[in-house]
């Protein structure tokens, strides 16, 4: 009988909490994130250049795809940077 390989883990640098993450890539279906102001559809897509995270806004009919490097970059931004992005209004 072979021993189970432990799932990879990531440590949150802010509080040291160790979080397991799925080895199999997780669910294949889209995820809808919504509140009273907006809804977005997030999904993992395969492109000829590798895996991307696609974020689509049905209300604005806009879509963006991020690779792992771009997502990593977002993970270490200061909250003020995100606030400045929220201040921008989408235009035609």
Question: Any key phrases for this structure?
Answer:
single chain; 35% strand; four-stranded antiparallel β-sheet; two-stranded antiparallel sheet; alpha+beta; 92 residues; 2 helices
DSSP E strands, number: 6
Terminal Cα span: 61 Å
Strand residue content? 25-35%
Task: Decide which structural class fits the backbone.
Answer: alpha+beta
H/E element order: EEEEEEHH
Strand order of the largest sheet: 3-4-5-6
On the 0 to 100 scale, the average pLDDT is: 80
Give the fraction of residues assigned to helices.
Answer: 10-25%
Low confidence ranges: none
Give me the number of helical elements.
2
Shape: globular
Can you summarize the main beta sheet? Answer: 4 strands, antiparallel
**Whole-angstrom Rg:** 17 Å
Question: Secondary-structure map with pairings?
Answer:
Blueprint: E1 9-11, E2 18-20, E3 31-34, E4 39-47, E5 50-57, E6 62-66, H1 68-75, H2 79-87
Antiparallel strand pairs: 1-2, 3-4, 4-5, 5-6
Can you put this structure into words, describing what you see?
It comes from Streptomonospora algeriensis. With 92 residues, this protein is an alpha+beta fold. 18% of the residues lie in helices and 35% in strands. Strands 3-4-5-6 form a 4-stranded antiparallel β-sheet. Strands 1-2 form a two-stranded antiparallel sheet. Strand 1 and strand 2 form a beta hairpin. The chain is globular. The model has no long low-confidence stretch (mean pLDDT 80).
